[in-house]
Structures are given as C-alpha cells and as structure tokens.
C-alpha cells in the first residue's frame, strides 16, 4: 500500500477492553493508568492503533455502554487529564487511539433522561427519547412486541404510565435520533474528543439509532428480517441466499444521513480521522452502504468472524466482502474475536466448526480440544493478517487465550445472565483479565500490592500463557503474532490492495498478493503439498518435506 494512503485502510487495530487489560491502581479493574503502562508492549507487538471500549462516566449497568456523561472519564478508569496524557503518549509510540462512542442509547442516569422522567408525559424533555403510551384499555401492555437484546421486553413502564424504549438493558434508554438536539449533541461530543487528539471512533450499534416512526411490531418469525444484531430474527444457518427486508429498528436507510454529517465533522480535523462501524447487516450490500465515500470509513466484518472452519464458507465470505466493499471504494476489515463473542480458540476447538447465525448465542458443539483450537487459531491469524485491508486483534488473542467457560455463577456480571433468567451465561468468559507475568493470579494484571482481586477470576492454569512466559519462545502464539505483524508492516504486498486465488483443492485456501507473496491455509484432514515458491516467510506449524499439515497456514515468497 502506498505510504500516502490513509492509515486506516491497512491498519491492525488492537482492541482494549479496558476493565480487563491492565489495572494500574490495584482495585482489580483495568484503567487508563494500566493502558499507559503497557503502551511499550503494544508498540513492540506491532499494531497500529488501539480501540478502547467505553471509558466514559457510567453507572456500569453494562460495563460502560450505559453512558451518563460523554465528556467525562469514569473515576474507576481515571480522569480526563489521564485520558489526554494517554492519547499524547500513544502518539509518541506511533500508536493511534480510537475510543468507543455509544449513540443508540444513554444511561438512565444521563441528565437528559433524568430530566425527561421528572418532566412527565408530553414534555419537550421526553422527546429526546422514545416514550410511548402502552397498548390495551389501561395502557398496561408494551407499545409493541420489540424484544431487548439482553432478553425480555424492550420497554419499561414508568409510574406515570408511559413506557420508554430500551433495545438493551432498562438502564440504557434509546435516544430519539429524529430530534435535532440529539444530532447536535453528538456532533459536539465528536468535536470535543477530536480536539483532544483521538484519531477516530468505533461506533457501537451503528446499525441502530433510527426507528420506524410508527414503531410497528417485528416481522413474523418466518420472514427473513435480517442479521442485525442480537435481537434479529433470521433464517440463514447454512448460508442460504439472503435478502433484505425493512426492519423497524435495525439498519434503516435514514441512519446514513447521520453518518454523512459525522463524516463532515471528522473532515474538519487534520490527520485522517476515521470511524469504524459496528454494523450488523443482512447482506454485504447493506454493509457496504455504511462505508460509501461520503459515509463512514470502515465497518467490522462479522461474516468473517461467524464463519465456520470451512474453506468454502471462508472463501465465499472473503469474495463477497472484497467485492461489495471494493465497489464503494472501502477497504475490508477482518476480525476473529471481540468482547461480545466466545474466543475463537474455543470456537475452533470443537471438531467441525460451522457458521453460526448472528443474533444467536454461540452454542459450543461438544467438548473443547484446546490443542486443535490453538492450531486452528494460529492458522486463522495468518489468514486474517494476509487478506487485503485492515484487521482487529482482541486483547489476549495474541496470547492464545481460550474462553473461560467455567466461571462460577456467583461471579457472572454480564446483564444478559440476569435478563435471560439465568439461561444465557453472557459474555464474561471472553472478558476475563489478561495475564502478563507470574505463576499465579493476578498474573501481573494488578500491582503486587493490589488491594482487590481482579473483577473476574482468572484460571489457575494461565501461567504458561502470560506475556512474560511467551516472550522469546519461537513456538508461542505471541511470537507468531509479533513476527506476522512485523512482516505485514514490511512487505509491500500486505495491507490494503488486491489478491488472486490460486488453483487448489476445495478444502485449501491459496492466494497470491503482488509483489511476490502467497498464503496457503490447509483446512483439510490431510497434508497438502505447497505450490512452487522461493522461500517460506512464516508458518503456523512445522513444515515437513514441503507439506503443510492439516489446520495450518503458511506465508510464502513467490
């Protein structure tokens, strides 16, 4: 990729789930001080930027995704001054900073919502949110049948009789994006943080925000309403042809007017400021609409994340993504894990791994084979980092961390656990604090004199997975990532650009990127003889007599 191209077209961005990255003050919760102390690690890893999950003032009903003040840092994480220092220090390390922005909803403790509750029905204050009278003769039934992404109804009734909408927890009331105050406020928030040096934003629930003005009921279950996040109704378990159908609260066309205005705000500032959308869309064409030239810059590729360990499925998603995004001039992005899904080591360690449907929790199929999952995760990392465009690395995946599937019920904190009636354990298993050093918990996550244990307990067998244990070990997952990221930065073929598939059997992925780079991934059960090449740059496992073993990948000089 030419040096003059915007940085975000090829960037590898490291996701920092702030509560679980590094604890600087010893209270058991990660914070800004912890991030600042680990910036040299991120620099040495070879990433280009860090995306930080919400750090704003919040009651923490959903661990920061319920924002009470978008211009303040929550005291559990630090101060605004510390955030400004972090941004400055990251830039000195050559790292960009991308915080989360949460525009679909606020906290119920946000001054706007508190004023709306106090003002009563029919007040101007309530027009900033979605308040409605109930159905039925006494208004005792919710205004429609919408369901919360965390389980249960998407409506809560106040003592005065009105209901308010919350597509997530009741403590997260949805904003009314038809109201000019809402649009003006968020443009002001963007300018506040851009002026303090942030390099962009990750937009939470970017496919939300706008609702059908009549708030109709959801489509029947036998209608393909779309992917569109955890509350979707969809019939696509085996990659059947998809179609888009108008949904009352996800992926509405009007949302793009908002992002065109946001793009204008970003363009006011120097340095290629950028947005990445967390947008669940039911077709690649619908996803591409978010990243048109006058809209957002990039969007997460959830189709790739949800793929099974299957060459045909992966190739189809790669082709669809590159074609649809390329048609609007946007780069693809690739991601294997994040803070909302089971870690891919544990997904891949279940024998035959099939694609799963967005909006449905990932249900493990059979017992975990950790060696198998790790082997496939190593291969998947080389595949992801070789594809055209950018990539995201979720904290701890470079350490090969599996999902923590045996957390005691007493420690679960994800609101999904309570809202589902204790039927869905939620996302805590992928959010356990990561290990840095030492032979026992807290594994360097907190200072030695910490006054509190980590907010979620760490497994007893993570000593060999710490950063310290893996550093310098050529066979470790960490050194695989470091080497791959170093090669990716140095090789002119990698990053944004194009690729060409090479002839190969159906269960082999093999492609060429000019100049002189090849990637081969063996998803079969048998060794595969490598195509003609000059030398090997990097392999996810040992090569014997020119054969690539099952569930392995290799980078070649061609």
Q: Overview of this structure, please?
A:
This protein is an alpha/beta fold. 24% of the residues lie in helices and 14% in strands. The strands form five sheets. It has an eight-stranded parallel β-sheet. Helix 7 (284-288) links the parallel strand 10 (274-277) and strand 11 (298-299). Helix 5 runs parallel beside helix 6 (255-266) and helix 11 runs parallel beside helix 14 (477-490). The model is unreliable at 222-241 (pLDDT under 50).
Regions with little confidence, pLDDT below 50 for 5+ residues:
222-241
Number of strands: 20
- Rounded to an integer in angstroms, the radius of gyration calculated over CA atoms is 23 Å
Task: Look at the structure and give the mean pLDDT.
Answer: 93
Largest sheet: 8 strands, parallel
Terminal CA distance reads: 18 Å
Strand order of the largest sheet: 11-10-9-5-2-1-13-12
Strand residue content? 5-15%
Number of helices: 14
Helix content: 10-25%
Outline type: globular
Compose a concise summary of this entry.
This protein is of the alpha/beta class and 558 residues long. It contains 14 helices and 20 strands.
Helix-strand blueprint:
Blueprint: E1 12-16, H1 32-37, H2 39-45, E2 49-52, E3 56-57, E4 69-73, H3 80-92, E5 96-101, H4 111-119, E6 131-132, E7 155-157, E8 163-165, H5 180-194, E9 200-203, H6 255-266, E10 274-277, H7 284-288, E11 298-299, H8 302-305, H9 311-327, E12 333-335, H10 344-348, H11 370-386, E13 390-394, H12 415-419, H13 467-470, H14 477-490, E14 500-501, E15 508-513, E16 517-522, E17 528-529, E18 535-539, E19 547-548, E20 552-557
Helix pairs in contact: 5-6, 11-14
